Amino acid sequence: MPELTLYHFPSCPFCKVVKDCLDRLNLEIPMRDLESDPGARDALIEIGGKGQVPCLVIDGKPLYESADIVRWFEEHTG
Length: 78
Ligand SMILES: N[C@@H](CCC(=O)N[C@@H](CS)C(=O)NCC(=O)O)C(=O)O
Prior knowledge:
alpha+beta, Glutaredoxin, 41% helix, 21% strand, globular, binds glutathione
């Protein structure tokens, strides 16, 4: 499994779609919450060029878009 971090914030409905997918697949991965983690937004912008969430960082590379992230988990786990 590559190194994964999910950038998110709690009230984001697109992030909920991804988190529901993680629950469904029974996966726990490191997460950074842009609301409560002061450095998270700047870190995400540095990695991906924008602060949009959700963003799954896979071995240092950003994957934006909830549908693409869900597809990635479905294809790479289980
Ligand atoms: N189409 C995207 C929409 C993501 C989106 O709109 N995220 C909002 C939060 S709910 C956001 O990050 N807005 C701030 C920004 O784009 O910088 C997805 O499905 O992931």
